[in-house]
Amino acid sequence: MRTHLAAVGEVSREEGRRRAVEELSDPLYGEQEPSLIDRFLDWLGDLIAGFTEGAPEFVGGWAVLGPVLAVVAALVVWLVFWLRPSRGRAAGPPVHESAPMTATDHRAAADRHEAAGEFAAAVTERLRAISVDLEDRAVITPRAGRTATELASEASAVLPGEAGGLREGARIFNDVAYGDRPATADSARVLRELDARLRAARPAEEVRE
Fold first, then answer.
1. Can you tell me the distance from the alpha carbon of 174 to that of 94, in angstroms, rounded to the nearest whole number?
2. What one-character DSSP code corresponds to residue 12?
3. Gap between the Cα atoms of 165 and 160, Å rounded
4. Helical pair 2-9 and 62-83, crossing angle rounded to 10 deg
5. Distance from CA of residue 60 to its chain's centroid?
6. Range 14-19, long-range pairs (CB < 8 A, 24+ positions)
7. Residues 97-123: pLDDT tens digits?
8. Is the Cβ–Cβ distance between 127 and 107 less than 8 Å?
9. Least CB-packed of 28, 130, 194, 198 within 10 Å?
10. Which sign does the torsion angle of CA 102, 104, 105, 111 carry?
11. Which whole-number Å values give the CA distances from 89 to 2, 97, 149, in the listed order?
12. Looking at residue 92, what is its pLDDT?
């Protein structure tokens, strides 16, 4: 029993904690303040330390403690892979997955899809039309791989009056791209109306002049 106790103590308190710290030091976490996962791991480390130090007196011994630690370990894995910040998920998929067409062509495709009730494709093509149009008008700088979230952020800095609409358009696009929510006629309408407003919008600097 002493041999098993030492081995479990080393992994739980030293090696396990070191590995957890290395995992959460990944740049993806990048938070200056302790995150929920950081606080949970601190609590977990203290809990395991208390278990291992008091294991000889623990009711049921390791036959009970083993399954408890297994459940806790499974919870840690779930937290790491589902609650940690995800660069891809936060930023979203790129607006253009291939070479973009002209804004006119993307709009025509969006209109065809919307008329046919293919609302997911209509949403996608409409945001692509918005992206190309804003680049053509030098509202945003042309850049490959730009996501809907980045598009909304960059365009909002120049067209602050449409910031809310841009964020909503990006949210709809991301929901459709990830499959979180099905596209609807209302989704396609919101993007179409946003496109029309943005075409008429002028950058804040031009308005001040």
1. 10
2. I
3. 10
4. 10
5. 43
6. 16/45, 16/48, 17/41, 17/45
7. 777 899 999 999 999 999 999 999 999
8. no
9. 28
10. positive
11. 46, 16, 11
12. 73
Measured over all CA atoms, what is the biggest interatomic distance in the chain, rounded to whole angstroms? 81
Two tokens at 203?
Answer: 């950058």
Instruction: Give pTM, 2 decimals.
Output: 0.57
Domain contains 51: yes
| Residue 99, token pair as written in the block | 């070479």
Domain residues for the domain of 74 are 2-85
| Torsions phi, psi for 201 (to 5 deg) | -75, 145
Q: What is the pLDDT of residues 129-148, one digit of tens each?
A: 999 999 999 999 999 899 99
CA pair distance 126, 120, nearest whole angstrom = 10
Instruction: List 147's β-bridge partners, or say none.
Output: 94
- In DSSP notation, 51-109 reads HHHTGGGSTTTHHHHHHHHHHHHHHHHHHHHHHS--HHHHH-SBS-SS----HHHHHHH
Token pair listed for 53 = 């130090």
Place of tokens 């992206």: 131
CB contact set of 172 (below 8 Å; sequence gap of 6+): 123, 183, 187, 190, 191
- Would 91 be classed as within a structural domain? no
Beta bridge partners of 94: 147
Place of tokens 């710290």: 21
* DSSP annotation of 205: H
Domain boundary among 85, 112, 128: 85
